[in-house]
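Appendix B, record 7
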Amino acid sequence: MSETTRQCAYCGNSASQRDHVVPKALLPNGTRGILVPSCEPCNSAKSKSDEFLRNFFAVDYRTCKLEVTHHLRKKAEKQAEHRVARNPTRTHREPEYVPVILPTGDLVKYPTLTIDGSVLKVALEWIARGLNYHHRKFVVPEDAEIEVWTYDESGRTSFQDVSRMSGFNGPFQIGHCFKYAVLIVDDRPTFSNWLFLFYDLVHFAVAIEDRALHDVHK
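Structure tokens (predicted):
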């Protein structure tokens, strides 16, 4: 069976496309990402979350000045300008560019983005579901319990310390923008804990538990 005719990594339906688990927009040109089979509805829905993540890292104070995110800022700004030209109504996924006068007297446009925690959570869930399929070859049920949390300013140190804990596999690296590690417990086959580190600065953790299967395995 070819890669494009397998079940969708996100919902289990028949797949007709392939999707970049880590948003392609975050990856510098030439970076080899992780591809999984996807159906058109999931691919389309995830693309909206991918766009939000791109804008998030384009304006986040920890990453907005990095050279590696320069292409994110330029693309986000250009897309925002095009959309405003077509429709002045801005969505929660789009950055707004606010005029700011620097101490030098120069007028620049500084990007701001209203962060909707639920949208960020969904974007990270998509990545965890895709990585789960890539590593474990099964689809996380839609009603599985998924918890997402972030670490504080310790960022890189937190990721390194936690990923070295017993039971974690990795870290795995995709280009210069994303690292991850995963904890899989033998006696809890329905559980997995994922650590994400973006740009060596922004650290999230995602825990997945399929309660229905967990009850069966008791």
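Remarks on this record: The radius of gyration is 19 Å. The first strand starts at residue 17 and ends at 20.
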